[in-house]
């Protein structure tokens, strides 16, 4: 599977269909082949006709599906006898056992790609170069002549390295099939297989065993890798290395110690090998160790568990459940902690502390002038329209000077100040500090 955004791999769920019900693969092995490519192996020993992939995979680039490798290809094949025919120009064709594992599935016998016996007790044996866990056998029958009978009543037996039977499959149908798909449910590796006991046709003096191709699909047993499964996994992952590369599994979802994947992510961490920090939008920095979704609600956002929608103006806190204080300027406040710029007469982070003035003569004109700060609105221009700054920070530097910071992340070419600012004395505008 290839994704643009590697963070989204941890949201992927692989399900298969059995008996019209989808269920998640219980035993998965993940290997990261490169920055954007993940190899996912489902080791549940089941047969399925359809798969379902769930998750945040809008950036899915490519998907490749494999049922395993054909471990029978070019392996050592023998049979009890070899049928032969003489063609025009005295060219003799011998239908040897190796023709059944040459990769050619052509069922037209006249093309010369099938094996065939000529004795009273025919048998075919395939010996593998290593031990393999096989989950499906496929037999290709002759289709140009006699396929209504040929291969009917066959028996397939597989054995392990100690010659102990692993699979024993008998065909009980009178009518033969052009292709046999034989699914097996075993976790035991096999070393060889044999096919025999075919039915005698009305036009043959004895039973003939014709195999146009034999395929066996499976994988290396745990602890081995390479195409012939002859290499042992490294000591750091003796039973779980990648079966193609031999590398130790480098991916754990929700665990921090590949390849064992037994140590659960610490608090505030999630994802592949626990390298991601839970989002600041998660309340208490608490998130699911695999998906990163917020588990205790949002902080400053309103849509748990995603927590991507900021609070509406005038609300703040966990899941945006608290209104800004009544004494906040313009009824707005910080969406996370509720802090705000206060209207005249109040101080404190939440503007909940009234100002106590000393008794005595006062200059009402001074109070009136500074009170005008609360009526100021800062607007910026984007796409030919002015809009009010949504995130403002106000700091009173002295009696008559206010520092106003607009924290909306926008580019603008002009600003507009609204309010009762007829007594504006000075205005200084700064874009950012030079941090070089």
Characterization of the model:
The chain has 436 residues and is mainly β. The chain contains one helix and 32 strands. The chain has one helix spanning 364-371; strands at 2-3, 13-18, 21-24, 28-34, 37-42, 51-54, 60-62, 69-70, 76-79, 83-86, 92-95, 115-116, 123-140, 155-159, 165-170, 179-183, 190-196, 210-211, 213-219, 224-225, 231-232, 269-270, 276-277, 315-316, 322-323, 346-347, 353-354, 377-382, 385-388, 392-398, 401-406, 415-418. Strand 14 and strand 15 form a beta hairpin. The longest helix is centred in the last third of the chain and has 8 residues, at 364-371. The protein is rod-shaped, with a radius of gyration of 37 Å. One of its GO terms (molecular function) is scavenger receptor activity.
Short précis:
The chain has 436 residues and is an all-beta fold. It is 2% helix and 32% strand.
The radius of gyration is 37 Å
Q: What fraction of residues sit in β-strands?
A: 25-35%
Low-confidence stretches: 357-366
Roughly what percent helix?
under 10%
Disulfide bonds: 342-351
Domain EGF-like: 316-352
Keywords: Disulfide bond, EGF-like domain
GO molecular function, one term: scavenger receptor activity
Main attributes of the structure:
single chain, 436 residues, eight-stranded antiparallel sheet, three-stranded antiparallel sheet
Layout: helices, strands, pairs:
Elements: E1 2-3, E2 13-18, E3 21-24, E4 28-34, E5 37-42, E6 51-54, E7 60-62, E8 69-70, E9 76-79, E10 83-86, E11 92-95, E12 115-116, E13 123-140, E14 155-159, E15 165-170, E16 179-183, E17 190-196, E18 210-211, E19 213-219, E20 224-225, E21 231-232, E22 269-270, E23 276-277, E24 315-316, E25 322-323, E26 346-347, E27 353-354, H1 364-371, E28 377-382, E29 385-388, E30 392-398, E31 401-406, E32 415-418
Antiparallel strand pairs: 1-7, 2-3, 2-6, 4-5, 8-19, 9-13, 10-11, 12-18, 13-16, 13-17, 13-19, 14-15, 14-17, 20-21, 22-23, 24-25, 26-27, 28-29, 28-32, 30-31
């Amino acid at each position: 599977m290839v994704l643009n955004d590697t963070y989204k791999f941890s949201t992927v769920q692989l399900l298969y269909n059995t008996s019209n019900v989808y269920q998640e693969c219980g035993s998965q092995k993940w290997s990261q082949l490169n920055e954007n490519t993940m190899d996912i192996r489902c080791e549940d020993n089941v047969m399925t006709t359809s798969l379902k992939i769930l998750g945040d995979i809008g950036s899915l680039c490519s998907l490749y599906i494999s049922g395993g490798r054909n471990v029978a290809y070019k392996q050592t094949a023998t049979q009890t006898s070899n049928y032969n025919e003489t063609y025009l120009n005295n060219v003799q064709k011998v239908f040897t056992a190796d023709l059944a594992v040459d990769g050619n599935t052509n069922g037209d016998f006249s093309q010369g790609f099938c094996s065939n016996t000529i004795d009273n007790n025919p048998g075919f044996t395939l010996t593998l170069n290593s031990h393999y866990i096989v989950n499906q056998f496929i037999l290709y029958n002759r289709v140009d002549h006699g396929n209504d009978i040929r291969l009917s009543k066959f028996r397939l037996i597989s054995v392990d390295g100690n010659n102990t039977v692993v699979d024993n499959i008998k065909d009980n149908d009178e009518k033969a099939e052009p292709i046999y798909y034989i699914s097996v449910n075993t976790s035991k590796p096999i070393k060889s297989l044999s096919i025999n006991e075919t039915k005698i046709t009305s036009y043959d003096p004895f039973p003939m065993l014709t195999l146009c191709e034999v395929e066996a699909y499976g994988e290396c047993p745990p602890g081995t890798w390479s195409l012939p499964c002859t290499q042992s996994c490294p000591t750091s992952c003796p039973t779980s290395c990648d079966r193609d590369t031999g590398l130790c599994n480098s991916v754990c979802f929700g665990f921090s110690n590949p390849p064992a994947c037994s140590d659960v992510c610490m608090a505030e961490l999630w994802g592949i090998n626990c390298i991601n920090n839970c989002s600041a939008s998660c309340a208490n920095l608490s998130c699911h160790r695999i998906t990163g979704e917020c588990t205790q609600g949002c902080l400053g956002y309103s849509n748990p568990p995603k927590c991507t929608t900021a609070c509406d103006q005038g609300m703040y806190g966990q899941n945006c459940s608290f209104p800004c204080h009544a004494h906040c300027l313009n009824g707005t406040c910080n969406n996370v902690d509720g802090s705000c710029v206060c209207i005249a007469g109040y101080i404190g982070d939440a503007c909940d502390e009234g100002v106590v003035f000393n008794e005595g003569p006062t200059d009402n004109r001074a109070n009136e002038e500074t009170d005008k700060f609360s009526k100021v609105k800062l607007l910026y221009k984007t796409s030919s329209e002015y809009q009010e700054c949504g995130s403002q920070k106000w700091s009173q530097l002295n009696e008559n000077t206010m520092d106003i910071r607009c924290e909306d992340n926008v580019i603008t070419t002009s600003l507009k100040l609204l309010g009762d600012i007829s007594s504006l004395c000075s205005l200084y505008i700064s874009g950012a500090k030079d941090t070089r």
